Amino acid sequence: MEEGLPTVELLESIHTFPCEYRFKVIGQADDHFVGRVLAAVRQELEEDSEPRFSTRTTTGGRHVSVTVEPTMETASHVIAVYSRLRDLEGLVMLL
């Protein structure tokens, strides 16, 4: 298990897979952060299309929150997506 990530056991005790899972990713509001988030999720899940998502920019415009809600097949996939998202350039917080 990677430090700071949920365990498979915890995820399976809270969710029934497959299910829609919500990732909240907060980062610097540059022109490409949202695209990097979506690309990371798509690549990890090997999807051609973007999952359902929404964005919200802070009042000052310095940060953007990206909520991504893909269908996750297993708890292991959730952990893999978290691992990929943690490496994003411009990441401030991952929930």
The averaged pLDDT comes out at: 93
Question: What is the correct CATH architecture?
Answer: 2-Layer Sandwich
- State the distance separating the first and last CA atoms: 17 Å
Helix and strand composition category? alpha+beta
Q: Strands across the major sheet, in which order?
A: 3-4-2-6
Task: Report the principal-axis shape.
Answer: globular
Q: pLDDT below 50 for ≥5 consecutive residues: which ranges?
A: none
Determine the CATH topology: Alpha-Beta Plaits
Number of strands: 6
CATH class: Alpha Beta
Instruction: Give the percentage of residues in beta strands.
Output: 25-35%
* Number of helical regions: 3
Q: Spell out the helices and strands N to C.
A: HEEHEEEHE
Number of separate domains:
1
Percentage of residues assigned to helices: 25-40%
The description of the largest β-sheet is: 4 strands, antiparallel
Name the CATH homologous superfamily: ACT domain
Instruction: Give the radius of gyration.
Output: 13 Å
